[in-house]
C-alpha cells in the first residue's frame, strides 16, 4: 500500500478531533507503613485501535510504584487506564498513529497527575507530585519530518525519587 502524501497527512489532522476522554479503570494500594525516601517508577503503555468508521480509540495505561530506597517491594501502587476517542476523515498510517499516540499521552497526563496527587493524599501520605510531561521531539530541519524519540514510542518508563517533606 503506498504511503499517504503530506496532503493526506495534513487533511487527516485538519479533521482530527478529540471526541471523548474517560477514566475506564483505576486501582490503588499502599502498605500499612510507607518508608521515605522512595524510588517512584511509572510505566506507560498505549494502544491505538480502529473504532467505528472514522474513529480511533487510544487506550493509555499508567502503572506507578514506589519502592523504598533500602527495600525491594513496592509500598505504593497506583494504576489508571484512560480511553481517548478521536474522529477524523481518512485512513490512519503508522506516522499518524505515532502522532495520535503522543497526543493521547499529552491529553491524559494532567488527569494522571491529578489522580496520583489526590489518591496519595487520601491514603494519608504526603501528596505525590509527578512532573509535567516533557515533550521530546527532534527534527533535522524545519521542513524535515520529525524523528522518533523515546517519548514517541508506545511504551515508556520514568523514575524519580520521592522525599519526605519534613
TrEMBL record:
Composition bias, Basic residues: 157-166
Region (Disordered): 143-166
InterPro entries in UniProt: SecB-like_sf
Gene3D superfamilies per record: SecB-like (3.10.420.10)
SUPFAM superfamilies membership: SecB-like
Domain of life: Bacteria
Protein name: Preprotein translocase subunit SecB
Organism, scientific name: Candidatus Cryosericum odellii
Amino acid at each position: 500500500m503506498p504511503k499517504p502524501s503530506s496532503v493526506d497527512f495534513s487533511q487527516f489532522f485538519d479533521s482530527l478531533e478529540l471526541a471523548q476522554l474517560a477514566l475506564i479503570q483505576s486501582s490503588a494500594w499502599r502498605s500499612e507503613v510507607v518508608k521515605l525516601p522512595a524510588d517512584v517508577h511509572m510505566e506507560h503503555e498505549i494502544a491505538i485501535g480502529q473504532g467505528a468508521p472514522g474513529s480511533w480509540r487510544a487506550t493509555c495505561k499508567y502503572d506507578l510504584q514506589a519502592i523504598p530506597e533500602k527495600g525491594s517491594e513496592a509500598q505504593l501502587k497506583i494504576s489508571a487506564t484512560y480511553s481517548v476517542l478521536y474522529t477524523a476523515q481518512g485512513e490512519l498510517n503508522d506516522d499518524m498513529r505515532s502522532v495520535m499516540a503522543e497526543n493521547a499521552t499529552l491529553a491524559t497526563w494532567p488527569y494522571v497527575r491529578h489522580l496520583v496527587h489526590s489518591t496519595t493524599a487520601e491514603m494519608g501520605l504526603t501528596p505525590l507530585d509527578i512532573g509535567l510531561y516533557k515533550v521530546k521531539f527532534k527534527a533535522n530541519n524545519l521542513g524535515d519530518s520529525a524523528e522518533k524519540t523515546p517519548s514517541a514510542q508506545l511504551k515508556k518508563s520514568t523514575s524519580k525519587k520521592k522525599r519526605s517533606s519534613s
